[in-house]
Amino acid sequence: MAKNSIPLHRKLLNPFKGDMAIWVIFICLAIISLIAVYSSIGYTAIITHSTPERAFIKHLAFVATTFVVVIALSNINYRRYASLSWFGYLLSVGLLVAVMVLGHKESTPGSGTNRWIYLPVINQFQPSELAKIIIIVYLARLLALEKETLHEWKTFRNVLIPVFIVTGLILPDNLSTALIIGIVCFAMLRLAPINVGYWRKTILVLAILGTLGILVGAKMDFGPLARSSTWTSRIDNWLHFDEDELTQESMARMAVASGKFMGVGIGSTVQARLMTQAHNDLIYAIIMEESGMLGGILVFLLYAFLYLRCIRIAWQCRGTFGSMTVAGLGTLIFLQAAIHMGVSVGALPVTGQTLPFVSSGGTAYLCMGLALGIIQSVAHDVNQTAGANRKTTSGENNGPDTKEENDLIEEQERLTMKIKEIEE
After folding, report:
1. Which residue among 7, 25, 69, 364 is least crowded, i.e. fewest CB within 10 A of its CB?
2. CA 100 centroid distance within chain
3. 77 and 374 in contact (C-beta within 8 Å)?
């Protein structure tokens, strides 16, 4: 048996690998999710010819499945995800193309239902939710493999191409998700040893093209920009909010306002009885209605602390792939949570983003579980490395690793990824 191998029975007795603080946060968010969804899903269940109990049990099944997914992924060496990300990237692109072709057949203009595709067993599946996890891991792989030449324009351009392909396929029907992916990926690039001038110029060009595209699309019914009028109207409605109009947004704001500081009590929501999106896109408003500003602040602090733990793991991970992956996925979770909370309280225009690990929605919940499982896999490796270092340096000065040691570890990581690609 290898020196560092762990017997299978010991793994089974201790399945929760990684950062224990993140596990606690995940469990807390899952409990909040079950309570909030049970309180808010009734009206949607009735209008979809179901029952609140059946809808809740379905959500409970997704939460339990996500726990299993996180445990399974956290017990896998995170370096394996580097080679798997190439297959995941191709799969994501294929599914995004499929939803553009198949999804439009059952959708109505501006409804957003073309974000979904129907798959056997899974039923409704939203490829963009999977794609935003995969592209972050795949970009981390590219940044690790091409670290030495990232300052060159050719390499910088080639690294951006996969990001542009994914965001370009998502953008026509889901602008907010495309923007989130772009923000996270460009944040990861900024952390890498790139030419900052290329980075700034690319952002400037994209901002100009994006603004022109929305303006032109709002005036013309042009293919990929056909929903520009919807995007601009959402911004206009947000800027010129009509309090007298009964909409999902106005009811969400009323829910937040009625919650005050302590809330109306768990299960005592009023606004959720009339909201179709109370259990997913605007669930934070229901949380604040039932638990008040106090509950809203506690939920925000859970996400903030989760993000801080991710930053700590990324900082301690000595391999570029691991640190970039955790930094990207952690930023994704926190950014999406912040956007959802901003929309729920009226600070941002409507986007349709769910609250990670809280909102109802099988695809979104499971895909966020993928992200958390990968983060915990890296955290587990960091813990093992730290434990090994403590043993080998017992009684000695435990100062930071030298630059030569870190460079050697990163070079070994790149070689490992290349060898696995050749083998596959």
Report:
1. 7
2. 21
3. no
Pairing relation of β-strands 117-119 and 123-125? antiparallel
The total number of structural domains in the chain stands at 1
Torsion region of 384: left, alpha or beta (phi above 0 gives left; psi -120 to 50 gives alpha): alpha
Residues, the chain:
424
Range of the domain at 310: 78-351+400-423
Is 186 inside a domain boundary?
A: yes
Tell me if 306 is assigned to some domain: yes
How far is residue 21's CA from residue 32's CA, in Å, rounded to a whole number?
Answer: 17
Within a domain: 72: no
Phi-psi region of 271 (alpha: psi -120 to 50; beta: other; left: phi over 0): alpha
pTM for the whole structure: 0.87
Query: Is 132 a member of any domain?
Result: yes
Cα–Cα distance measured from residue 340 to residue 328, given in angstroms and rounded to the nearest whole number? 18
How far apart are the C-alpha atoms of 60 and 166, rounded to whole Å? 31
Q: Strand, helix or coil at 324?
A: helix
